[in-house]
Amino acid sequence: MKLSGWGRYPCVEVVPEQPRTDTEICAHLACATSLIARGNGRSYGDAALNETCVLDMRRMSRLVAFDEGSGFMVCEAGVLLSDLVALFVPRGWFVPVTPGTRFVTIGGMVAADVHGKNHHVAGSFGDHVYWLDLMLADGGVMRCSSEENVGLFNATLGGMGLTGVILRVAFAMQRIETDLMAQRLLKAATLDEAMDLFESNDASTYSVAWIDCLASGGRLGRSLVTLGEHLPRSALPPTREGRPFADVPRQRLALPVSSPAWVMNQRSVAAFNALYYARGRPGERIVSLVSYFYPLDAIGGWNRLYGRNGFVQYQFVLPKSASREGLRAILDRVAAAGAGSFLAVLKLFGTVRSRAGSLSFPREGYTLALDFPVSAGTFKLLEQLDAIVAAFGGRLYLAKDARSGAAMLAGYDQLDAFRALRERLDPVRHLSSLLSRRLGL
Amino acid sequence: MLVVGGTSDMGRAIAHRHAAAGGALILTARDTARMEPDAQDIRLRYRTEVTVVGFDLLALETHAGLLDGLPALPDIVVCVAGLLGDHTVSRGDPIAAKLVMETNYVAPALLLGLVANRFEARGRGVIVGISSVAGERGRASNYVYGSAKAGFTAFLSGLRARLSRTSVRVVTIKPGFVATRMTAGLKLPPVLTAQPEEVGAAVAAAIRRHKDVVYVRSIWQPIMTIIRHMPETMFKRIKY
C-alpha cells in the first residue's frame, strides 16, 4: 500500500506491521534490515516512512497507570491524544502541551517533541516527560529519564524515532477546572504590531497568531493574535452553571476526495485571507477546549485540500534577536512569489529549558509555519527561504519537513552529539527513515 | 459481560465498547499475564470493573467450571475465539485441521450451549457468537475454517430457535473481513474490510436493537445473498 505523511508527499510502497507487544517489536527489529516506528501519520513529510519496514504503533495503545491525585500518566506509545482528550478532559485532566491536532500518538509527540500555543510558559512536551522506555536497535529496553540514561533521553525527545522504538511514556497531565477556554482576539495591522502583541502578552498561557502571508507592502504581516486561558470554574457562563465538563465534540466532517489542485491558488487564498482578517472581531469569547485547540480536526482529511500531489509544510524558528528582520525578509519573499499559504501560523517560543532534546525544534524566538502545494515552483521558493533561514541562524522543524538538505541541520547546535550517539548505538542505521537518510542522521 | 477470547483485536474492541458504556467485564485468556495489561488499560480508561480469568476454551471439561466459578452468571456472554489456520496445512494435516474445527466450532458451540442452559434456567441473558461469512459457503481456499464457522452459525441459529419463546437472546455476528492480527499480511479489499472497532460497535448495536444476525459492514448482505444463491455448478468454478 501507498504510505505517506500528512502532506501526502512523498509516498512509499510498504505494508506497515502492527505490533501489539514489546516481544513483537523485538522480533521485527531482529528480522528487518531497516525500520522506523510510525504513530498516527501526522508528521507532514518523510519522518515516518521507510520502504523496508514501518511499525504502525497504533495497536500499542494501552494505558498503563494513572494517578487521579497527581495526574501522573503512563501509557504505551501508540495511545492517541484524541483518546486522552475524550477520556480525561471530562475528569478534569488535560495534556500539559498539545499540538494543533489531537490525532497524534503520544509516542509521536515525544519523537517530534511537539510544542503548543503555551510554549513560552510550559516548554515542549518533552519538558513534562518523567521517563520513557525505549527499545534500542539491538532489542534491549532502556528506561530513560533526566536521571538515568540521560544522553539517550535527550536524544529521544525530538529524535524522530531514530534512537529506538518508544514503547511507553510517563508524563504529567495538567488539572483543568472546566472544558472551556477564555479566548481573546487581537488584531495586528502589521508584522511589528503582531510581534509587539506577543511580547506584551507573554503572561497569557496560550498565544498564537494567524498571519496573512499574501498581504504585502504596508500590510505585510497583518495578523489575528489569539490569546487563551483555561476557564476557571468560577467564570462558568450561566448556561453551563454547575456543569464544568459538558462539551460534546461535534461530528467530524470528512473531505472524502482530493480537491483539484487549482482550488488553492493565489486568488482564492488571498480572498480567503482578506475575508478572514476582515471578519476577525477583536474581543473576548468563551469557546470549547476542543474547538480552541483543534479547529482543523473538525474537517477530517483537510490535507486533501491541496490536491493529489500533496503539499509541504514549512516551519522554521529564528533566534529572537534576528526575528524581526528575518520574518520580514521571508514574508516579503513569500508575498513576492505570490505563493498563497492557507495556513500561516506565527508563534513566539520561550527560552528553552535545560531538558530540551538534542534535536528538539523549539528555541527562543519566532516560529512561522506555512504550507504550499507540491510543485516545482514551491521547491524553488523553499530553497530561497532556506537560504534566508540559514542566514539568520534559524532551523527547520523536522516533523514538517519533506525536502530540505543536510546543510539546513546547521541550525541545530547539538547535532554532533546526536550523530555521535547514533554512531555508537546504531552504527548500521538499523533505525532509519527517508528523513534520516535524506539528512544523513 | 463475559468475553471469551478477549486478547484478540476483536475481543479487545468489543470489551472497550462495553466498558465505555459503563459495563463491567470478565475477560478470559489462556495466558492471564498477557491479558492483564489490556485489562488494566480498560480499567484506567473507563473506570469500570475488569476481571481476568484463566481459561482454555479447548479444554471442554473445564467449561462448566468456568461458568459455575464466576461470582455471578453474566448478563451477556460473547465468544470471539477463532483460528484461521493455514489452509494449505489444514488440507493435508488432520491434526491441524482438527484444531481449526475445534477452535471455531466444537469448543465455542459447546460452551455457549452450557451458557444457554444457564440463561434459560435464570430466564434471561444475551449470547453473542462471532461467526463468519466464510461459514455461508465452502470456498476452495478455506473450507476447513469455513465449515467450522458454518457449524457454529447453524448451532447459534438452532439455539436462537430453541430459546425464541424465552427472554434469552442469541446474536450471530458475521464480521466479514476485519483488519486484525488474524488477517495481517492478507490482501483485503478496503471497502469490505472493517476495523475491529466497527465490530465492537456492531455487537453493542445488535444487543441494543435485539438483532438476530448481523453483518458488520452492510455491503456483505447483498454479496452473501448472491453467493448463497449461486448454483453449485457455477460456484465450484469461480475463484474467490
Automatic annotation (TrEMBL), chain A:
InterPro entries: FAD-bd_PCMH, FAD-bd_PCMH-like_sf, FAD-bd_PCMH_sub2, FAD_lactone_oxidase-like, Oxid_FAD_bind_N. Keywords: FAD, Flavoprotein. Signal peptide: none annotated. PROSITE patterns: FAD_PCMH. Pfam families: FAD_binding_4. Residues 7-176 form the FAD-binding PCMH-type domain. This is FAD-binding protein.
Automatic annotation (TrEMBL), chain B:
Belongs to the short-chain dehydrogenases/reductases (SDR) family. Pfam families: adh_short. It comes from the Bacteria. This is SDR family oxidoreductase. The keyword Oxidoreductase applies. InterPro entries: NAD(P)-bd_dom_sf (IPR036291), SDR_fam (IPR002347). Keywords: Oxidoreductase. It comes from Ancylobacter oerskovii.
